[in-house]
Amino acid sequence: MRGSPANRPRWSRRTALTAMVAMAAVAAATVATARTASAATWETVIDTSSFGSYPAFEAEWRYLYPWGSDHNGTARMYGSPSDHNHVILSDGVLTLKATHITWDEGTSSSSPHLPIHYHSGAVHAADQIVVTDQYPNYEVKGEFQAPTARGTWPAFWLTGVDSWPPESDILEFKGDSTNWFNTFRTASDVSTTKVGVGSAGSWHEYRAWITKVSATDVDIHYYVDGVWKGQHRANFVGKPMWLIINLQMEGSSGSPGPTADTVYRARNVYVGRSRA
User: Fold this and answer.
1) Cα 241 vs. chain centroid, distance in angstroms?
2) Is-contact 129 94, C-beta < 8 A?
3) Torsion of CA 57, 58, 60, 62, to 10 degrees
4) Which of 14, 234, 238, 242 has the most CB within a 10 Å radius?
5) Cis before 256 (ω within 30)
6) Is 131 within 8 Å of 249 (Cβ atoms)?
7) Is pLDDT above 50 for 2?
8) Contacts of residue 254, Cβ cutoff 8 Å, sequence gap at least 6
9) Nearest-CA neighbor of 229 among 252, 264, 204?
10) Measured between alpha carbons, how far is 173 from 181 in angstroms, rounded to an integer?
11) Ramachandran quadrant class, 27 (left: phi over 0; alpha: psi -120 to 50; beta: rest)
């Protein structure tokens, strides 16, 4: 029952103002606490300084592909702590360099077993990316200068550790100025968003935001220079993935490729995740 007017408490303007100030203070403290808690749940996996020196690089990255030196093009990857001819660091920039060879070095050990025409560079992150209940969100991004001539095939991508697919291509140019955002759920079930990138040889940022949306699925949002370009859904929950940067040649990017050296540059590569 509501009290009669005679029995209602009388509040002075000063009392009301004091109460309003107190409530505002409580609200501000609550927001600050929420922001602090939210910030505390975000973890940096790879920070943007990993290309600052070879020791910093080798703490976060490994040379070659996770499975070795060969893949699906005509470039064989070279690189080690004592071999920096094709994996070069300078002023915070990673440069992968492909050099045309004129001798017979056989064929790639990976399908479709193309003849080796180049020596080039590939690196992969030491930490794997796996979306789970504990880590439901990932951000993967970096700035790149990508070659687009016929026969050049640069990539910044995720691929399955235990099986293929999963695969998510965050940057992939295949001999022209079109970037292919690909998400492979199976070999034949693929989502693709193609985006033309002006002056791809200048610095551009490529980004993927990966978020768990069900017990099995993630949504992957793809961006170029901070502009959203597409969203793909895939059954990637619980599937560990490698992060790879490589300069492959020919294959899907056409042939013949260039005879002069080709370079692919990266900087400010970052991986972060939320902890539930």
Assistant:
1) 11
2) no
3) 110
4) 234
5) yes
6) no
7) no
8) 150, 151, 174, 175
9) 204
10) 10
11) alpha
Distance in angstroms (rounded) separating the CA atoms of residues 214 and 176: 36
The model's pLDDT over 156-170, given as tens digits with 9 standing for 90+, comes to 999 999 999 999 999
In three-state secondary structure terms, 55 is helix
Gap between the Cα atoms of 48 and 207, Å rounded: 14
Residues facing residue 246 across a β-bridge: 122, 155
Instruction: Return d(Cα 200, Cα 271) in angstroms, integer.
Output: 22
Active site residue 167: yes
- 212-222, pLDDT tens digit by residue? 999 999 999 99
Phi, psi values for residue 59, rounded to 5°: -75, -25
Q: Which of 60, 139, 172, 250 is catalytic?
A: 172
Q: Which three-class secondary structure state does DSSP give residue 165?
A: coil
Q: Which two tokens stand for residue 260?
A: 């002069």
Tens digits of per-residue pLDDT, 169-200? 999 999 999 999 999 999 999 999 999 999 99
Q: Which of 60, 143, 167, 250 is catalytic?
A: 167
Claim: this prediction has a pTM higher than 0.70: yes
**Dihedral sign for Cα atoms in the order 60, 236, 182, 76:** positive
Structure tokens, 133: 């209940």
